[in-house]
Amino acid sequence: MKNLYGFWGAREKVMGGVFLFSAIFSILALGTITVFLFVSGVPFIAKTGFAKFIFGSDWAPLADNSSYGIFPMIVASLYVTALSVIIGISIGLLTAIALYKFCPRKLVAPVKQMIGLLAGIPSVIFGLFGMTVIVPFVRDYVSPTGVGYGILSASLVLGIMILPTVVSVSLDSLNSVSNTFYEGALALGATREQATFKIMLPAAKSGILAGVVLAIGRAIGETMAVIMVIGGSPEMPESLFQSVRTLTANIAMGALELQDDALSALIATGVVLFVFTLILNISFSLLKKDSSDKERRGAKK
Known about the structure:
The chain is mainly alpha-helical. It has helices at residues 2-48, 50-55, 71-102, 105-117, 123-142, 151-161, 163-176, 179-187, 192-203, 205-221, 224-230, 247-254, 260-300, and strands spanning 59-60, 67-68.
C-alpha cells in the first residue's frame, strides 16, 4: 500500500513539474518575443520619428529617399478586421443559436464537426479559394470598378476563417447557461425565440465576447490568405474594391527581401501590430471586469 501511495505521490509531483515548466516556458516565450520586437523596432521608430512612421502615408523602403509611413496599412488592417468580424460574427453567432435550440438534435453534432473542420484547413487553402472563387465573383458581379482584389474579398475570406472560433465558443457559452432559465421563460409564456434571444443570449454574453476577441485576434493577425486576395498596394484605402496592404501582409511581403533600415521598419511594424493586440486584450479584460462588477451589484440589490 505504501508503494502505491508513493507511486501516485511521485506521479503527481512529476505532472506538477510538467505543468510548471509549461507555464514558465509560455511566459519566457512571450517575454522573448516582446523584448525582440521592442529592442529591434522601437529605436527605428525613434530614429524615423513617431508621427512620421505612424501617420506617414508613403511606404517606399527601396527608393533613393526612403520613406516608411504605415498609416495606410493601419487603416487597411482596421477596415479588413472590422468588416470580417462583422461578417463572421453575424453568421457565426446565428449559426451557434440555430445549433443551440433550433436545429434537430441529430444534426447538431455533424454540423458542429463540419464547421470545426474549417479550423484545420491551412490559410493558404483559404487564399486559393478566395483567388479562384471570391475574387472573380466580386470582380464580375459586385465591384463597380471591375477590380476583385481588395478589402471586401479579404474580409469575406477572413469572415469564413473565423467562423469555427465564433461558432464553437458561442455554442459552448450558451450550453453553459443553466437550462432552467430557458424553461422558466417558456413557463412564463415566452416563445422559443424570446427565451433564446432575450434570456439565454444575454446570460452567455461573457463567453460570446471572449469568442469575439479571439475572432478579432485571428482576423488582425492573418497573413497568407490576406496577401493572396487583397492586392498588396500600400495605398490609403478609399474603396472596398481597392488593392491595399495590411500590416501583416506588409511584414510578410518584405521579410525575405528587405535589409538594414527597411528590415528594421518591418520589425517596427510588428511592434505596432503587437501593441494593437495588447490594447485589444486589455480592453476586453476591462470590459469583462466592468460587466462582472455590474452583475454583482445587481445581484446585491
